[in-house]
Design a protein that fits this description.
heterotrimer, A mainly alpha, B mainly alpha, C mainly alpha, A: 6 helices, globular, B: rod-shaped
């Protein structure tokens, strides 16, 4: 089965039915392994035990950005090839991406309470994530406002691509804004300060979360295809009845 | 000592992750069941897809290839 | 007269005429700024410190809230279909409509800003900074807002959705606009860096906005 065959919704359903149990199994194993690694990781000499929150925070942040990337690629598929499966992929990635961005914000603020003494600090990373979360909610609101699915897909695709162009600019400007109002940023995780004892569980968790995302996304896409079939059949039924 | 003070936040984070992920899994599973039921209901009332799914899919795939 | 010039004149006439609502943006601007002291108290020192930020925020909201009917009105009376069929490229048509909107809504805000700034105890330098930064920054707001107006064109209740979609995208403009305006007022931070980036944002949105808005209009109206 080539990649092109998957673009057919019926083929995709079959593929999803076959692959989902395996993918789910691998995800569970990876998550269990990652959690085991995370629990076994030693405390950070600066952050102490709260470094364990990072094993959730960083993979969630990664998924929040990855989901927007997937939506942007799907948006190209929608606008250039008018492919219905691209619409489905874009629509279902949005709520999952939003959920992980929310998880990133929640874990970030729970990390901040003991480290900064407050639940929310206008730290550059957290602020960018918040704007990303708002953009996700905007896209979801747009999907829910337009009734016709393919028109909703095209409107959401344009918004997604504009967001993809604007997101790096937002990130840059928030970073700049943060250095301007310096004094609040305590958290620096970049560069050489990450030890292998932390890095390895972090990478394992990132892989496990990515697998989780792929599983959820394929399952949600299957649901969406079925939902569209139900919609078409109901329309046919209504036409036949009239 | 410090670890004990921070324990509620660590537990809270993992609980939040559990809630979010369980919510996503629940959404996907319940939605799947609902769509399956709606499809079965429609098919029972005689509204199958335009043709039998397998030949249609094969024909479409041939067209695309 | 070229078709695009005629369109510019038409849009500006429609905006200024009864029912056009060109100056409602300025009125909204004034009302929002008046409400601020009621919320935070009449402490002039504090008002002066946050003045540029408040004025920028009010200008941002006034500019965007005025945008929601930009394409919707033309869509309802059918003239948008004519514009889509015209021989001028849709991107340029959209850009001209954006320009007309900026001239009738954005520019009055820039003119009114120093006067309204008096209410917040702004001195001459701060007023000058405000005018310069708003002049450089409001085109970006208009042309980013164009995209939202085009996406929301066929929606029955587009106004609130438009704000929700577009406001997060305007974060960079707000950051650099307020930073540059504050730099003029306090003199503590360099003015050139934020102001140059603000101009870059405006120029970039002049390009990206019409293209994205035209694409959205083509997709929506078929």
């Amino acid at each position: 089965m080539s990649l092109l065959d998957l673009a057919n919704p019926s083929r995709f359903l079959k593929f999803a039915d076959r692959v989902l149990p395996w993918l789910g199994g691998v995800t569970v194993v990876a998550l269990a392994f990652g959690l085991n690694q995370a629990m076994g990781a030693p405390d950070d000499y600066q952050q102490g035990a709260t470094v364990k929150i990072m094993f959730l925070h960083v993979p969630s942040a990664w998924l929040g950005m990855m989901a927007w990337g997937i939506m942007s690629i799907a948006a190209l598929g929608t606008l250039v090839w008018r492919h219905p499966l691209a619409d489905v992929a874009a629509k279902t990635a949005a709520p999952i991406g939003a959920a992980f961005t929310l998880l990133c914000l929640v874990t970030g603020s729970l990390w901040g309470r003991p480290e900064w003494g407050t639940y929310w600090v206008w730290d550059a990373r957290l602020t960018s994530e918040l704007v990303l979360f708002l953009l996700y909610l905007g896209v979801i609101a747009l999907w829910r406002t337009v009734e016709d699915p393919s028109r909703a897909a095209r409107a959401a695709a344009i918004l997604t691509l504009v967001g993809a162009v604007d997101l790096p600019i937002i990130k840059f400007s928030v970073d700049w804004w943060n250095t301007l109002h310096q004094g609040s940023s305590v958290f620096r995780m970049g560069g050489s300060t990450i030890y292998p004892t932390i890095l390895v569980p972090l990478l394992v968790m990132a892989v496990a979360f990515t697998l989780l995302f792929v599983t959820l996304h394929i399952a949600a896409m299957r649901n969406e295809i079925l939902r569209r079939r139900v919609r078409t059949l109901r329309l046919m039924q209504a036409q036949a009845a009239s | 000592m410090e670890g004990i003070n921070h324990l509620p936040f660590i537990v809270g984070s993992y609980a939040a992750a559990f809630v979010v992920i369980a919510g996503l899994i629940g959404w996907v599973t319940l939605d799947f069941r609902a769509q399956r039921r709606a499809l079965a209901d429609l098919e029972m009332r005689g509204f199958a897809r335009r043709s039998a799914p397998q030949p249609a899919a094969a024909a479409l795939a041939k067209e695309e290839a | 007269m070229t078709p695009l010039g005629a369109l510019l004149i038409r849009d500006m006439r429609l905006a200024v005429r009864v029912g056009g609502g060109a100056l409602i943006g300025v009125l909204f601007f004034l009302v929002v700024v008046t409400l601020v002291p009621f919320a935070i108290g009449p402490d002039l020192a504090l008002l002066k410190r946050i003045g540029p930020a408040v004025l920028w925020l009010a200008a941002l909201l006034a500019n965007l809230l005025a945008l929601d009917r930009l394409f919707a009105v033309d869509h309802e009376d059918g003239s948008l279909d004519l514009l889509l069929m015209s021989r001028s490229p849709l991107e340029l048509v959209v850009a001209v409509k954006g320009l007309a909107h900026w001239l009738t809504t954005g520019l009055p805000l820039v003119v009114a800003a120093p006067l309204i700034g008096l209410l917040l105890n702004l001195d001459g330098a701060a007023q000058a900074g405000l005018v310069v930064t708003l002049l450089a920054g409001t085109p970006a707001l208009t042309f980013i807002g164009l995209i939202g107006a085009a996406i929301a064109v066929a929606l029955r209740r587009g106004g609130l959705l438009l704000a929700v979609l577009v406001l997060p995208l305007t974060v960079p403009v707000l950051i650099f606009g307020v930073a540059a305006a504050n730099a003029v007022m306090t003199g503590a931070a360099p003015f050139g860096t934020p102001f140059t980036i603000l101009c870059a944002l405006s120029l970039a949105s002049l390009v990206v906005g019409p293209f994205a808005a035209a694409a959205a209009l083509r997709q929506e109206i078929e």
